[in-house]
Structures are given as C-alpha cells and as structure tokens.
Write a structure and sequence with these properties.
single chain, alpha+beta, six-stranded antiparallel barrel, 4 helices
Length: about 150
C-alpha cells in the first residue's frame, strides 16, 4: 500500500493566483513589540503587490509602514481537512499617492469593517509560499475538496 502525501507545495505562480480568489486575509505585524494579527480586506494589484484596506482610525497602518510583515490567506474545509493556504512575507508601506488612493477607493477596495475613507498599505512580496491540503481516506470519499474560488 502506497502512502499518498496529502500536502502539496504550491508554486509561486499558483500562490499568487489563489490570493486573487479571496477578499480577506490576515496581516501579521509587530505592535508594541508583540506579534499582532488582523483580518483585512485586500486585493492583488497588477504589479503583484498586495494592497490592504485598513480603517483610517486604525493604528495598524502606522505600525506596518516601513516594516517587514507577513500575510496569509486560505480556504479550508474543516470536515475534509482539505483546502489551501498561502503565506507572503514582504515590505509594507502606506500608499501616499493621492491618485493611487483614489483609484483603489473608486475600484471598491474597502476595509472589512466599515468606517471613514480607508488607508491603504501595499505589501511587496519577497517570499511567497503555499500548500494545498488534499482530503485522504474516508473524508475524501465523503465530500469534495473546497474549490479554488
């Protein structure tokens, strides 16, 4: 009987494609010398950067500006224990160009939680990796894996 590894390493191209299929992920950064994680709305820009939409009254944008941060997005099915997860590490900077801000706003990128006009942070990917988890055994037969939306 052959062992089937349920974990598949994803290519960088596949990771970037999958990131474009979900509207929310988690940004990981340092706040007051402690690790912090925040779910955020985002989009993948044409140049490959991840653009995060944050509330204007949030301290997160200030904490991220000019730092190295991580970002994770995924789709997981707890019943079949299948899905995918992508992790990005890179340099974050507040988007200060007013035309770029207006374009993001006009395109509909908004914080997951409402509020006044958002602040945008661009994360330039430097390390991109991910995994696909395939259901195996009885769980695989009982239910199809989540779609790559």
């Amino acid at each position: 009987m052959e062992y089937e590894d349920p974990v598949e390493e994803l290519s960088e191209a596949e990771c970037r494609r999958l990131l474009g299929t979900v509207p929310v992920g988690r940004v990981v950064y340092t706040e007051h010398a402690l690790p912090a994680v925040l779910p955020v709305a985002f989009e993948v820009a044409q140049d490959g950067r991840l653009v995060l939409a944050l509330r204007a009254d949030s301290t997160t944008a200030r904490a991220l500006d000019g730092t190295v941060a991580a970002f994770q997005a995924d789709v997981l099915d707890p019943e079949t224990r299948s899905g995918w997860s992508v992790l990005v590490h890179g340099h974050a900077e507040v988007v200060r160009d007013h035309r770029a801000q207006d374009g993001l706003y006009d395109a509909g990128l908004r914080p997951w939680v409402g509020g006044p006009r958002p602040v945008y942070v661009a994360l330039t990917p430097e390390l991109v990796g991910g995994r696909r988890l395939r259901a195996v055994g009885a769980a695989a037969a009982a239910r199809p894996a989540p779609a790559d939306r």
